[in-house]
Prior knowledge:
Elements: H1 2-6, H2 10-23, H3 27-39, H4 43-56, H5 61-73, H6 77-90, H7 95-107, H8 111-124, H9 129-141, H10 145-158, H11 163-175, H12 179-190
Helix pairs in contact: 2-3, 3-4, 3-5, 4-5, 5-6, 6-7, 7-8, 8-9, 9-10, 10-11, 11-12
Amino acid sequence: LGDVYKRQDFKEALVALESLLKTKDNATLRAYKAGCLMELGQTEKAFQEAQQAFDLNPEDLEANIIQGTLYFQSEDYKKAFPFLQKSYVLDSSRLEVLLKIAHMYASAGKIEGAISVYEQLIVQHPGFFMGHFNLGVLYFKQNRLGAALDVLADGLALEPEDIETLLNYGLILFQLERFPEAVETFDYLLNI
Protein backbone atom coordinates (compact mmCIF):
# COMPACT_ATOMS: atom_id res chain seq x y z
CA LEU A 1 0.00 0.00 0.00
CA GLY A 2 2.83 2.41 0.86
CA ASP A 3 4.42 2.00 -2.57
CA VAL A 4 1.08 2.58 -4.32
CA TYR A 5 0.52 5.71 -2.24
CA LYS A 6 4.03 7.01 -3.03
CA ARG A 7 3.34 6.56 -6.75
CA GLN A 8 0.10 8.48 -6.21
CA ASP A 9 -1.90 5.74 -7.88
CA PHE A 10 -5.01 6.54 -5.88
CA LYS A 11 -7.30 4.19 -7.80
CA GLU A 12 -5.06 1.23 -7.03
CA ALA A 13 -4.65 2.39 -3.42
CA LEU A 14 -8.42 2.67 -3.09
CA VAL A 15 -8.85 -0.93 -4.24
CA ALA A 16 -6.19 -2.09 -1.78
CA LEU A 17 -7.77 -0.12 1.07
CA GLU A 18 -11.24 -1.48 0.38
CA SER A 19 -9.79 -4.97 0.52
CA LEU A 20 -7.97 -4.25 3.80
CA LEU A 21 -11.06 -2.69 5.34
CA LYS A 22 -12.95 -5.98 4.86
CA THR A 23 -10.58 -7.67 7.30
CA LYS A 24 -9.42 -4.77 9.47
CA ASP A 25 -11.74 -1.80 9.85
CA ASN A 26 -10.09 1.11 11.63
CA ALA A 27 -9.98 4.90 11.57
CA THR A 28 -6.56 5.21 9.96
CA LEU A 29 -7.42 2.99 6.98
CA ARG A 30 -10.73 4.82 6.52
CA ALA A 31 -8.89 8.14 6.64
CA TYR A 32 -6.50 6.92 3.93
CA LYS A 33 -9.49 5.81 1.88
CA ALA A 34 -11.03 9.27 2.31
CA GLY A 35 -7.73 10.76 1.14
CA CYS A 36 -7.79 8.62 -2.00
CA LEU A 37 -11.38 9.62 -2.70
CA MET A 38 -10.45 13.26 -2.22
CA GLU A 39 -7.53 12.93 -4.64
CA LEU A 40 -9.85 11.28 -7.17
CA GLY A 41 -12.25 14.22 -6.94
CA GLN A 42 -14.98 12.29 -5.11
CA THR A 43 -15.37 14.92 -2.41
CA GLU A 44 -18.78 13.90 -1.09
CA LYS A 45 -17.70 10.28 -0.64
CA ALA A 46 -14.44 11.49 0.90
CA PHE A 47 -16.36 13.53 3.48
CA GLN A 48 -18.53 10.49 4.33
CA GLU A 49 -15.51 8.21 4.70
CA ALA A 50 -13.64 10.83 6.74
CA GLN A 51 -16.60 11.16 9.09
CA GLN A 52 -16.71 7.38 9.54
CA ALA A 53 -12.99 7.41 10.32
CA PHE A 54 -13.48 10.14 12.89
CA ASP A 55 -16.50 8.38 14.41
CA LEU A 56 -14.43 5.20 14.81
CA ASN A 57 -11.68 7.04 16.68
CA PRO A 58 -11.79 10.82 17.31
CA GLU A 59 -8.19 10.61 18.58
CA ASP A 60 -6.81 9.13 15.34
CA LEU A 61 -4.26 11.48 13.78
CA GLU A 62 -5.07 10.59 10.17
CA ALA A 63 -8.83 10.92 10.77
CA ASN A 64 -8.31 14.44 12.10
CA ILE A 65 -5.94 15.39 9.29
CA ILE A 66 -8.31 14.24 6.53
CA GLN A 67 -11.33 15.94 8.12
CA GLY A 68 -9.35 19.16 8.44
CA THR A 69 -7.94 18.84 4.94
CA LEU A 70 -11.34 18.33 3.35
CA TYR A 71 -12.78 21.39 5.07
CA PHE A 72 -9.59 23.32 4.30
CA GLN A 73 -9.84 22.51 0.59
CA SER A 74 -13.47 23.61 0.55
CA GLU A 75 -12.25 26.85 2.22
CA ASP A 76 -14.38 26.27 5.29
CA TYR A 77 -11.59 27.26 7.66
CA LYS A 78 -13.91 27.55 10.64
CA LYS A 79 -14.70 23.83 10.41
CA ALA A 80 -11.16 22.86 9.37
CA PHE A 81 -9.39 24.53 12.25
CA PRO A 82 -10.55 22.28 15.15
CA PHE A 83 -9.53 19.14 13.25
CA LEU A 84 -6.15 20.56 12.25
CA GLN A 85 -5.60 21.92 15.73
CA LYS A 86 -6.32 18.45 17.16
CA SER A 87 -3.91 16.98 14.57
CA TYR A 88 -1.31 19.45 15.76
CA VAL A 89 -1.82 18.34 19.37
CA LEU A 90 -1.49 14.70 18.32
CA ASP A 91 1.67 15.32 16.23
CA SER A 92 3.08 18.84 16.09
CA SER A 93 5.71 17.93 13.50
CA ARG A 94 3.45 17.02 10.55
CA LEU A 95 4.34 19.36 7.71
CA GLU A 96 0.90 19.34 6.04
CA VAL A 97 -0.79 20.24 9.31
CA LEU A 98 1.60 23.09 10.04
CA LEU A 99 1.16 24.49 6.52
CA LYS A 100 -2.62 24.44 6.68
CA ILE A 101 -2.75 26.01 10.13
CA ALA A 102 -0.35 28.77 9.07
CA HIS A 103 -2.41 29.38 5.92
CA MET A 104 -5.62 29.61 7.94
CA TYR A 105 -4.06 32.09 10.35
CA ALA A 106 -2.80 34.22 7.46
CA SER A 107 -6.16 34.03 5.64
CA ALA A 108 -7.92 35.20 8.80
CA GLY A 109 -5.50 38.13 9.11
CA LYS A 110 -3.87 36.62 12.21
CA ILE A 111 -0.34 37.24 10.99
CA GLU A 112 1.36 36.68 14.36
CA GLY A 113 -0.26 33.23 14.56
CA ALA A 114 0.93 32.40 11.04
CA ILE A 115 4.43 33.64 11.84
CA SER A 116 4.57 31.52 14.98
CA VAL A 117 3.60 28.39 13.05
CA TYR A 118 6.07 29.10 10.21
CA GLU A 119 8.84 29.71 12.74
CA GLN A 120 8.15 26.27 14.20
CA LEU A 121 7.89 24.76 10.73
CA ILE A 122 11.32 25.92 9.57
CA VAL A 123 12.90 24.61 12.76
CA GLN A 124 11.28 21.19 12.31
CA HIS A 125 11.61 21.12 8.50
CA PRO A 126 14.65 23.29 7.67
CA GLY A 127 14.90 21.92 4.14
CA PHE A 128 11.34 22.93 3.21
CA PHE A 129 11.82 25.98 0.99
CA MET A 130 8.25 27.31 1.07
CA GLY A 131 8.35 27.62 4.84
CA HIS A 132 11.27 30.04 4.55
CA PHE A 133 9.65 31.95 1.70
CA ASN A 134 6.26 32.33 3.40
CA LEU A 135 7.81 33.36 6.72
CA GLY A 136 10.06 35.87 4.95
CA VAL A 137 7.10 37.42 3.15
CA LEU A 138 5.13 37.69 6.41
CA TYR A 139 8.09 39.35 8.14
CA PHE A 140 8.44 41.70 5.15
CA LYS A 141 4.75 42.67 5.38
CA GLN A 142 5.29 43.52 9.04
CA ASN A 143 8.33 45.61 8.15
CA ARG A 144 10.59 43.25 10.11
CA LEU A 145 13.17 43.65 7.39
CA GLY A 146 16.20 42.13 9.12
CA ALA A 147 14.29 38.98 10.05
CA ALA A 148 12.79 38.78 6.55
CA LEU A 149 16.22 39.11 4.95
CA ASP A 150 17.68 36.33 7.12
CA VAL A 151 14.83 33.90 6.44
CA LEU A 152 14.79 34.63 2.70
CA ALA A 153 18.58 34.12 2.60
CA ASP A 154 18.03 30.68 4.13
CA GLY A 155 15.39 30.03 1.46
CA LEU A 156 17.77 31.13 -1.28
CA ALA A 157 20.35 28.67 0.05
CA LEU A 158 17.77 25.97 -0.75
CA GLU A 159 16.45 27.45 -4.03
CA PRO A 160 19.04 29.97 -5.29
CA GLU A 161 17.13 30.85 -8.47
CA ASP A 162 13.64 31.29 -7.10
CA ILE A 163 12.43 34.46 -8.79
CA GLU A 164 9.92 35.59 -6.14
CA THR A 165 12.40 35.09 -3.33
CA LEU A 166 15.11 37.00 -5.19
CA LEU A 167 12.68 39.82 -5.93
CA ASN A 168 11.62 40.12 -2.28
CA TYR A 169 15.23 39.83 -1.15
CA GLY A 170 16.26 42.65 -3.49
CA LEU A 171 13.36 44.84 -2.40
CA ILE A 172 14.30 44.40 1.25
CA LEU A 173 17.94 45.26 0.53
CA PHE A 174 16.71 48.37 -1.30
CA GLN A 175 14.49 49.39 1.64
CA LEU A 176 17.44 48.89 3.99
CA GLU A 177 19.38 51.22 1.67
CA ARG A 178 21.89 48.50 0.92
CA PHE A 179 21.88 49.62 -2.69
CA PRO A 180 24.96 47.81 -4.06
CA GLU A 181 23.64 44.46 -2.75
CA ALA A 182 20.15 45.25 -4.08
CA VAL A 183 21.56 46.03 -7.53
CA GLU A 184 23.61 42.83 -7.45
CA THR A 185 20.50 40.82 -6.53
CA PHE A 186 18.40 42.43 -9.28
CA ASP A 187 21.18 41.89 -11.85
CA TYR A 188 21.36 38.23 -10.85
CA LEU A 189 17.58 38.01 -11.15
CA LEU A 190 17.65 39.52 -14.67
CA ASN A 191 20.22 36.93 -15.78
CA ILE A 192 18.25 33.88 -14.71
